[in-house]
Design brief:
Elements lengths: L1 E4 L7 H16 L4 E4 L6 H9 L2 E4 L9 E4 L6 H9 L3 E4 L3 H15 L3 E5 L5 H7 L7 E3 L12 E6 L5 H12 L4 E4 L5 H14 L4 E5 L5 H12 L4 E4 L15 E6 L5 H12 L2
Parallel strand pairs: 1-12, 2-3, 2-4, 4-5, 6-7, 6-8, 8-9, 10-11, 10-12
Helix pairs in contact: 4-5, 7-8
Amino acid sequence: MNVTVAPCAGFCFGVKRALKLAFDAAHEGDGPMVTLGPIIHNPQVVAKLSDEGLRVVDDLSDIESGTLVVRSHGLPRTVLNAARERGVEIVDATCPFVKMAQDRAAQLEADGYAVVVVGEQDHPEVLSITGSLSSGATVVTGPDDLSGPLADRVGIVCQTTQPIERLKTVVTRLLETTQEVKVFNTICNATSERQVNALELAAAVDVMLIVGGRNSANTRRLWELCREAGSDAYHIETADELEPGWFEGKKEVGVTGGASTPQWIIDEVVRAVDAM
């Protein structure tokens, strides 16, 4: 079989930056080193960081001292303020694109707009955006979540890993019921590039492998897009999940990885397919 890896696959800029900050903090920091939730959505990378001494906790009450490394998805402003009040040192590894979405949402609120966030209700990035606002926001996954007029003036931002088509459909629906709509396209280019590359590669191969954490929204979306396009696509975390039956009678295999998937895992998958 011939194996082709998508040109844009694996770590994006924001993830690389977050992991550098995290590993540096683990090596250089004093006292307990923690993240509130996994720093990125990849269990294998989180396990490596744990081996370096960076512990994952689920609640701020579990942090009494030491250093909090803010996950790439960001944290609500109230959580960061509460951590500082406890005397906890902050290493902010929030992705700059997520930070921009937070700032845009805050700007819209300050300018008097009712804020709408296009994204997944319980995703940590979305929670960090809505948690940066005084009055919260309406979170929608698509136009069907909009049941009626929200306000005369509505401002929109988007979870950075959402497809542009979803943002467009929400904007179109709001234009039907709202006097004024202001939109900031806060979708990260890395997300769009990976989606375009994955679809192009999927159209040219017999089998498509999407590698990355099952808790990774952008990885899951790559798999969904390939499936929706009619591709024989499989979402796996590691090479151990490969099944020989997927490749029977197949000649061309495509591989891509989400923005939180390390290159070493992609390489392992490629080697495992080559060995079949």
